[in-house]
Design brief:
elongated; mainly alpha; 64 residues; 77% helix; 2 helices
Length: 64
């Protein structure tokens, strides 16, 4: 059950950072020399999708 919480939290956090990065990419990509919205989408959008997919798959297999 802790894994479900961690993947759900990771998905929510990635989505929040994705929205913040669309407003100002430098807020979330400060560690890269080149900051643009496409990189924000690649990094945080894919992280959000993976976290939510794993969360829903684990929920499906645990609950049956």
């Amino acid at each position: 059950m802790v894994f479900l919480f961690l993947f759900k939290l990771g998905g929510i956090l990635s989505f929040v950072l994705l929205i913040a990065g669309f407003v100002r990419p430098v807020y979330v990509l400060w560690f890269l020399p080149k900051c643009n919205r496409r990189l924000v989408l690649y990094r945080y959008g894919s992280a959000a999708l993976v976290c939510w997919a794993v969360y829903f798959l684990l929920t499906y297999f645990i609950n049956g």
